[in-house]
Amino acid sequence: MIKAGIVGGTGYTGVELLRLLAQHPQVELAAITSRKEAGLAVAELFPSLRGRVRLAFTTPEEAPLERCDVVFFATPNGVAMQQARQLLAAGVRVIDLAADFRLQDVAEWQRWYGMEHACPELIAEAVYGLPEVNRERIRSARLIANPGCYPTAVQLGFLPLIEAGVVELDSLVADCKSGVSGAGRKAETHILYAEAADSLKAYAVPGHRHWPEIRQGLARAAGREVGLTFVPHLTPMIRGIHATLYARLSAEVDVQALFERRYAGEACVDVLPPGSHPDTRSVRASNLCRIAVHRPQGGRTVVVLSVIDNLVKGAAGQAVQNMNLMFGLEETLGLTQLPVSP
Amino acid sequence: MIKAGIVGGTGYTGVELLRLLAQHPQVELAAITSRKEAGLAVAELFPSLRGRVRLAFTTPEEAPLERCDVVFFATPNGVAMQQARQLLAAGVRVIDLAADFRLQDVAEWQRWYGMEHACPELIAEAVYGLPEVNRERIRSARLIANPGCYPTAVQLGFLPLIEAGVVELDSLVADCKSGVSGAGRKAETHILYAEAADSLKAYAVPGHRHWPEIRQGLARAAGREVGLTFVPHLTPMIRGIHATLYARLSAEVDVQALFERRYAGEACVDVLPPGSHPDTRSVRASNLCRIAVHRPQGGRTVVVLSVIDNLVKGAAGQAVQNMNLMFGLEETLGLTQLPVSP
Amino acid sequence: MIKAGIVGGTGYTGVELLRLLAQHPQVELAAITSRKEAGLAVAELFPSLRGRVRLAFTTPEEAPLERCDVVFFATPNGVAMQQARQLLAAGVRVIDLAADFRLQDVAEWQRWYGMEHACPELIAEAVYGLPEVNRERIRSARLIANPGCYPTAVQLGFLPLIEAGVVELDSLVADCKSGVSGAGRKAETHILYAEAADSLKAYAVPGHRHWPEIRQGLARAAGREVGLTFVPHLTPMIRGIHATLYARLSAEVDVQALFERRYAGEACVDVLPPGSHPDTRSVRASNLCRIAVHRPQGGRTVVVLSVIDNLVKGAAGQAVQNMNLMFGLEETLGLTQLPVSP
Amino acid sequence: MIKAGIVGGTGYTGVELLRLLAQHPQVELAAITSRKEAGLAVAELFPSLRGRVRLAFTTPEEAPLERCDVVFFATPNGVAMQQARQLLAAGVRVIDLAADFRLQDVAEWQRWYGMEHACPELIAEAVYGLPEVNRERIRSARLIANPGCYPTAVQLGFLPLIEAGVVELDSLVADCKSGVSGAGRKAETHILYAEAADSLKAYAVPGHRHWPEIRQGLARAAGREVGLTFVPHLTPMIRGIHATLYARLSAEVDVQALFERRYAGEACVDVLPPGSHPDTRSVRASNLCRIAVHRPQGGRTVVVLSVIDNLVKGAAGQAVQNMNLMFGLEETLGLTQLPVSP
Q1: Where do the domains of chain B lie, and which CATH numbers do they carry?
Q2: In CA terms, which of C100, C323, D240, D272 is 20 to 30 Å from D79?
Q3: Cα gap D147→D155, rounded to integer Å
């Protein structure tokens, strides 16, 4: 059994990790920390876990994190980088669900996240945890930067086109719609029910932190910089991301075959038949990314529709997928629950 | 492996049965029928099942139902009673998720359901599939009348009080709120998104078919007729039933202890600590009923809060629980997925 | 033109007051205060008011409240009682949308609201602003206690029965469902979209502040104390209250005729035809209360269904209705917008 | 008073027209037809109109349409073209809220709408009812083709850029999100609450009927054909369209100033300050289009955010705006209700 610890388990990625790990046949939950809720039973904060998760929150100091095999950080940005060095030194693998190790360019990270990085020397070692791209490196990694939710949906949608070199790289557009849980479990006015329900809005059009992360991933695939316009939208649903991607073809190609080939062996990516329109509920509560690809009116513009559950393939599920790889387990172990629909 | 067939798998209880049975370690899906969708792959109608359910819908005639070990009817009322006799004769166990065998009084059934009963002789044999009441009879049953969604939540909430003989039986009130999936997957105007969203209404106040079913169950426990006012409400959520129950105490009793004792050994009923208020999402997509009990201001009125997922403990999950009992399996086999929250 | 001021205009009752007063033909908005948002243009906080409300928030000190004809308090409980004395002394009428003057029993108020009352001498003078009960007293009032949202829906539903003396008074039940805006525009976790959407829960079953308010109103009508069980529920909709009321008849009576007679002249109460089930959206954004009355199975239990928009007839609209009465205007002036449906 | 008739008033654009016309100071509702609901009181089908609309539905044959001053068609496509000739001959002005007269190219219309046009000779006369473009022609029109909902939001968002000739015309992208009421009040499975809630999907990516309509409008402004990719999405909200538009600048220009100048005199278009993100609820139930314009990272891609209420500025409200112009009334008469928020 893998002994797993969670730092910062009171948010939505935390409770989703708990849901997945508590059902994982090879994991034993060893500790979960929350400075604010220390002493409280996890199942009291999250009644959905009653009878199944018997841990209580502890302070980080009291938690036996260094005796874990793996520690997940489901914390705000800037926390994992404070503790990663020590845990790695103790032989613990670290999976950061926040952004501390996602950008390889430290200066850019500091610009977007507005703080100094606490352990820049670990950034080069950290592996970006997108298994469909970095599977082999993940297997041997000590430190995983678990991808952001938007970056997961967008990269999985664009990569086949970019890797094949068949689209113009200067005018990519990613129009993304996210459920409100993507904003976290924070007491903020704009994500109140009465604000976010029955309404939709774009946000952060001038610049969003997932923009450099996506560009980094696409640039690596392209071998050069890419031009990307990324517009996220707050959508009245709990879970789900729908990325609608636009690119101009630079070569004639059978895009459907291209996508099917690229993801042929991937258990967590499902390329739909031609003409499909995936809805986010078809992946709700599952670790799947479903993708459809279109060429409206047979023109030069390719439209890719890519949906994930932001809390699963976009966060906690992908983290477990990475853990499975790191510990030599079946990649989808504990991740095969069917989507919940309706 | 249990060979299972589903008759009428295009509704919400059908797809939920598919979700549960496809993940059940001891079940092999042998057939699923739909006259209207015959020939269509199940996963085309329900993309959430892509890659996991490879069956196609067939007509009832072509389906190898008589070679199944168990057949579930996820059909409109009035269908199971047409086919039950023949299946039972062939040695197949039958679980009807509709109402054909729920009422022991044939005349009353015919009055509420507006049709003649096709096999009244089977009604006496049919076992009402509420395991928390009829566990032993279910184990040996050939024919199960799977309870309605409201009746499950309401009976589980009232039974401890009634069995203990501590409440007045003439003025019970069950104020119930159901998610819209409870109305089925039918193309009807009143359950359109734009009609049902951001609104709430009572319905069927003059009389609802679940009223006689609940009364029958409560009367059996009481040993006499009970007076019950039942008001269902259509609520803007997909899944979930919240039953708010009101009864007047006729004896002094520790109601919290009463409930805890009654459900001490029950895996699918969770009595919450004093002062709790269960929300429906704490049971979403799970086979649990969570219950809290209150005596506001220490008065004579007991308020019971009982929540279930109408499609799971209120339908497909309870059907699988019954199947497990009938086939000598662990009662919760295939039913242990944690609720999905948020 | 009536010069109107609003104290504390950053919540949902505040913005709803602004919506109504900005469209009222006889009102001039003179000032709106918010200590926290002082200096901010109202339309910047509430973009729905752009181009129509040109005021900015000011501190209470700077606001010309004493030169207003009427001041509305859309503040948390405990604010209006600090300022009412001085405003009344300056000849300003005061309408408190919070609870400071709702309970005539000071001791009970202090118990439920957990603070000392700052001007108990004004409580007796304050008129409870339910026009359907206190119309004449409102016309000449200086100080109005605007009713709570639940109390409005529940009292309008019970009053015809109680005034007529035809129901048992010891076992009234009010099962109420409220949209999330009823909890206010406060940054609290439990009313986040991802918490409140697609779920329903009861709350405050042991005791809610609206319970003594409702009992006070019903007792006044009954001429004696009443026994009331009141259970509010948080419902996944933005606006709307649905009160489902249960009472036992103590006399034979035509309840439909009773309700129609009681509200025959009332512009803001609409008694539906027999057999109706009002939905909350049929009053959305309007100052109406729609009521239907049932006797299921012709029994002794009366079920009353009473719906309002909690922000309009349950708060800001009723406040404007009171203002109209106080200033000798047509009672529904500025309140005749049709409900928004769907 | 203008005598107004409505043909086909049982859908969402019909009931919204009723809401607006019933409150219009210069309109008298003379007739409303529905073959299916003939004889039924309008307020019985739409309880939100109780007490305010006293008409009953009649058959088209019985309705005094030829004695109206204006007749609105809130019908499926293909109905208005059957009756327009006769009504115009009788001197009645006609406003078609469906698509019969929207496309000037008859062959293209027939291709997209799959039927033969019944009165092609009227197409050239019909005026496309977008007042911000065709105001003068609308004033003297006999026959108005009221624009589609998506086309309204998209054209208003793109027009300033295209009219100024500052964007590349071959790669325009319109990513649009619509509330479910946009699909109409039809009993269809895919728009059931349990299907459409808590989920989001693109649809009609290969081709949507609003695509040629938008292209026609943009081409007229550009003086040449334009290349447009249009992807609509079904979004879990009742009302609202959010169009997110992408264009590549071909010239250096102050886009904010450009938009402000273009819509300076427009009462129904509100250009937000730089850096804004309009939400659809800021226009809910109002006839406004709010627009914000961005240049992320100061690059060459312009992002325009354009929001409307699909039932008001996207349908019934714009129809009333057109009627006002046709009859020489103040353009916004009866259309000044403030948005309902929250």
Answers
A1: 2-125 (3.40.50.720), 150-311 (3.30.360.10)
A2: D240
A3: 10
